[in-house]
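Chain A, query sequence.
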Amino acid sequence: MSPQDAEKRLSGTLSADKNELLFADFGINYNDEPEIFRKGSVLIRGKELVDVPDSQGVVTKRTHGVVLTLHCDIIRDKFWNEHPEILRGKPTRAERRQESRAQRARELAAQDAAPPS
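Chain A, predicted structure.
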C-alpha cells in the first residue's frame, strides 16, 4: 500500500477506528504497546543535584540543569500537575533581581533579630 493509499484509508477515521484497523490487519493491540510508541516523546528541562569539589577537595552539592526525555501523555492533567513550571514560565531578569533583593532583606532582618552571641 502506498503512502497515498494509506492516507486515504485513514482519512476521516477516529482513533478507535485506527485501533481496530491495526488489530484486524496486523494483530497489534494498540493499548499493549509501550507508551513511547503510543504517546511519543517530550523533552523538558529538569534539575539534578551533583557533587562539585572545590580547589581544596571540599565537595558541595549544586543543582545542574538537565534535559529529560519523557514518554507520557501530555494531554491529560497528570503531566501538567507534575510539571507546573512549564505553564508558569521562567521568571524575568527583573523578577529574579527583585526576588534576590527580597531574599537579602530577609537575611539581614534575620541577622538583626538574632540575639547577640
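The mean pLDDT is 87. The CA atoms of residues 16 and 30 lie 10 Å apart.
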